[in-house]
Specification:
By secondary structure, the protein is an alpha/beta fold. The protein has ten helices and ten strands. The strands form two sheets. The chain has a six-stranded mixed beta sheet with strand order 6-7-8-3-9-10, with helices on both faces. Strands 2-1-4-5 form a four-stranded antiparallel beta sheet, covered by helices on one side.
Length: 237
């Protein structure tokens, strides 16, 4: 079998005396879309921060493309090809749309057809219309499109999206799901945290559900869609 693109083994993490992750395992193969699910406070954000090098592990390790990345700095991990669309968008208020995309442009996945600012503008025509607007002048939906575009122009091998549809109007939310479907079709590897399980099962290959910092369930979209008791038990749906 092919080596996983990302492999998290026995991840443990704590904030002071409060342990948050208790031996979490996670694997993502190249080209796969994986949903990371669970109620608020179950450890999803801590796991993502641990993958990105923003939170030191108390035990276990993280490997990317077979190489150990646990303990490396966040900027080093980013340069290896892990991109993030963070919860809350976190766009720079005093940079224009075009400046955001230009500043973050890089080719980290070896592709011959990289994401560029021009390609992002084709993908999100609304951003092209607002290319000279500052981050602070964009709506929430436009900021989310910019956050995705900013991550795409780094040309990551793995793109992590943390609550990318949270707080968006229904029409904008549909635009984000369209974006994710197109990225999947293009072969982009994705790790997606989102509460809209009914939409996530349409695009993801596999899912991992966290409960109190442990993996409570893992399986395919077909299995998750067929067992609604899991939704009620672990997701509050």
């Amino acid at each position: 079998m092919a080596e996983p693109l990302l492999q998290v083994s026995g991840a443990r993490a704590a904030y002071g005396a409060s342990q948050v992750l208790f031996g979490v395992d996670l694997e993502i193969g190249a080209g796969q879309v994986v949903g990371l699910l669970g109620r608020n406070g179950m450890g999803k954000t801590t796991l993502i921060r641990s993958i990105l090098g923003l939170k030191a592990l108390a035990g276990g390790d993280v490997r990317f493309r077979g190489a150990l990345i646990s303990g490396q700095s966040a900027d080093r991990i980013g340069r290896l090809g892990i991109g993030i669309v963070p919860e809350g968008r976190q766009v720079f208020p005093n940079l224009s749309v075009e400046e955001h995309l230009t500043a973050f442009s890089a080719v980290r996945n070896g592709t011959a057809d990289p994401w560029t600012p021009a390609k992002v503008f084709e993908f999100f025509p609304r951003l092209a219309e607002r290319r000279n607007n500052l981050g602070s002048q964009l709506s929430g939906g436009e900021q989310q499109m910019l956050a995705i575009g900013r991550a795409l122009v780094t040309n990551p091998r793995l793109l992590i999206l943390d609550e990318a549809t949270e707080g968006l109007a229904p029409l904008i939310r549909e635009e984000i799901w369209r974006c994710l479907r197109l990225l999947r079709e293009a072969g982009q590897t994705l790790l997606v945290v989102d509460k809209y399980v009914s939409r996530l099962v349409e695009i993801a290959d596999h899912h991992v559900i966290l409960e109190k910092g442990q993996v409570a369930w893992r399986g395919t979209s077909a299995e998750l869609a067929a067992d609604r008791s899991l939704w009620h038990r672990y997701l509050g749906v």
